[in-house]
Amino acid sequence: MVDCLVIxxxxxxxxxxxxxxxxxxxxxxxxxxxxxxxxxxxGAGILPPGGSKxxxxxLDQMQAASSDLHREWAARLSAETGVDxxxxxxxxxxxxxxxxEVASLLGLQGWFAxxxxxxxxxxxxxxxxxxxxxxxxxxxxxAAFLLPGEAQLRNPHHLSALQxxxxxxxxxxxxxxxxxxFEILAEQVVGVASRGQTYxxxxxxxxxxxxxxxxxxxxxxxxGILPVRGQIVLFRGDRQLFRRVINEGPRxxxxxxxxxxxxxxxxxxxxxxxxxxxEAIAELTDLAHSLVPQLRDAQVExxxxxxxxxxxxxxxxxxxxxxxxxxxxxxxHFRSGLFLSPAIAVAMSQLMCGETPTIDLTPFAPHRG
Length: 369
Ligand SMILES: Cc1cc2nc3c(=O)[nH]c(=O)nc-3n(C[C@H](O)[C@H](O)[C@H](O)COP(=O)(O)OP(=O)(O)OC[C@H]3O[C@@H](n4cnc5c(N)ncnc54)[C@H](O)[C@@H]3O)c2cc1C
Known about the structure:
Elements lengths: L1 E6 L3 H12 L4 E4 L8 H4 L3 E2 L10 H24 L10 E5 L2 H16 L5 E3 L1 H7 L12 E5 L3 E2 L2 H14 L3 E3 L6 E5 L2 E7 L2 E3 L1 E6 L5 H7 L6 E12 L8 E4 L2 E5 L5 E4 L13 H14 L7 E13 L5 E4 L6 E5 L5 H16 L17
Parallel strand pairs: 1-2, 1-12, 2-8, 4-14, 12-19
Antiparallel strand pairs: 3-7, 4-6, 5-6, 9-10, 10-11, 13-16, 13-17, 14-15, 15-16, 18-19
Bound molecules: flavin-adenine dinucleotide (FAD).
């Protein structure tokens, strides 16, 4: 019997376990596979900046809190485990390739400005100075903006650090342990079953990513969590060609310190089918070649896909699962789960420890539909 049983060891579950253990709680995390091997591994690790003013909506507050916490957690995880999580405040470049995209970037600039985040337009010659590896073609790049506060995380390294830090805090991590059933008594879950064994806890937290849908259904909770596939191409390079994350519409190119370059991503509703398609990989490769011509000489090292946990209204599910008195959920963070994970961990731990979360979780209530 532990204080808290976390079901799903992606970035969300591991972060919650890490934070709950810091509060002195005994924690066990079950994952049906190896820890951190689904969306949290597959993601790009882009961390947009959080604002400092007009943070009226709880989602704005979560973003701002996460932005600060990532800096803190990277330092703390490195001190506790010796692992460099690859957290870098590298900055971002936002490009418009088509006329309509200029207007949407001006809108994004206004959205950031309202929240006190600097994003400014640069001329072609300034862009050349900042990122000389980018294509020098005003027909290809119609406008460019810099977002200096953008950061990135090497998510596989971050996940490895989180697991080590959890173990150091006494968290019991149980891989290859799929939860298939709940044992129920009145309005309480009293155990979960996996491979003929029952695991018991005071409270249960569902952090099973895109698969949370099925677990909530078993508890008779209808919900709009759905898998949204994203594909990635990884280039191997021998030196870093550019420093900032390059964004164009929903696509991005992320430079890692070791010369590798990650290009993503698609948004596909194909159920739980992972795998890549020739069309998407060709499209992402063309995008990379057209924006960074030197990548034509780089080898494609690997391609992959992951299933983001999407939600029907674009908001995540976070909170207690009414009417169950001891069941909580944190899932459905779509394209932002890596980014929001530390703030999710703090808010969910506050809630599960009986405190009022510093950030109001009402808009994310699991029973909203
Ligand atoms: C291509 C791609 C690019 C992305 N880029 C970014 C980005 O740049 N920035 C960002 O912030 N986010 C990004 N994301 C989104 C981010 O990866 C997700 O929002 C986040 O990883 C979700 O974390 P999670 O822990 O909820 O889910 P997951 O990482 O999917 O973890 C869920 C875990 O639950 C386990 N599980 C499922 N069912 C059960 C069960 N019944 N019993 C036990 N265990 C179970 C699974 O095995 C899995 O390990 C990207 C995602 C993809 C796919």
